[in-house]
């Protein structure tokens, strides 16, 4: 998580204008000790509060925005599909991604790719109980049901 410029300025100000230790500054500002040390070192080396970023960080995304749209559309069309099924659909389109990537992309838009619970089939006994119940309340009117 990035530290706000306001917190960086507070760290430098506390270091220059008080005799607080790195630990005390970290506690006062609400950041880690190593973060305070890094902020102070950057400020002493360059005189700047903002860190120098060296290009783009992290691994490049395997999927493109177009691929993400296809994946989300397939998920919306059939919400019962698992991440493995959705991955297989993408593979048929010539896009190779892992099931974990599929799950990550769906989670980014608030969707889940889970195998739905299996529905328990009705047994003969359950069917008979339902029939008895239905016959018992067959003559009820709308007013009777409103009182429930």
Question: Which spans of ≥5 residues are poorly predicted at pLDDT below 50?
Answer: none
Strand % is: under 5%
**By helix and strand content, what is the structural category?**
mainly alpha
DSSP summary: helix tally: 8
The CA-CA distance between the termini, in Å, is 53 Å
Spatial extent as radius of gyration: 30 Å
Mean of the pLDDT scores? 88
Written overview of the protein:
The structure is a single chain. This protein is mainly alpha-helical and 148 residues long. Among the domains are: 5-46, Arc Repressor Mutant, subunit A (Orthogonal Bundle), CATH 1.10.10; 65-108. It has eight helices and no strands. The longest helix is centred in the first third of the chain and has 14 residues, at 33-46. The chain is elongated, with a radius of gyration of 30 Å. The model has no long low-confidence stretch (mean pLDDT 88). Pfam families: HTH_23 (PF13384), HTH_Tnp_Tc3_2 (PF01498). InterPro entries: Homeodomain-like_sf (IPR009057), Transposase_Tc1-like (IPR002492), WH-like_DNA-bd_sf (IPR036388). Its main location: nucleus. It is found in: Nucleus.
